[in-house]
Amino acid sequence: MSERSKRLLEEMMRKRGYVYPSYRVLAEDDPEFLETYDRLYELAMIRTRIFPEKIKELFFICAIAARNPGDASAMKNHMRRALERGATKEEILEALKCALFPGGALSLLYSINSLIEVLKERGPSMAQA
Hints:
80% of the residues lie in helices and 0% in strands. By secondary structure, the protein is mainly α. The longest helix has 17 residues, at 105-121.
């Protein structure tokens, strides 16, 4: 892997707190493409115009729950980011409830399972809260 690709992945990890295996493939194959993808992520998710990052993460959680609730990896990553940016367990649950109608009951239930796991990672007091 080139130094450029390594730096790009390190920067993505710093900004997001995670790097998916697909990002590694893109970094090796086409770092310019991945840089552009990362820039779009920054504009949509990190830059604050109207909504702060916490709210954007709640949007993201709701979208994953409705569209692909079985993607526990992405769900957990965005739940962690939401919590790190000040979201509460109750706010995440509210976002998940919004996914019930477009995504169905399993979208809600699978997503709550991911939330339970993320809260357990943060300590027993969070999991009980």
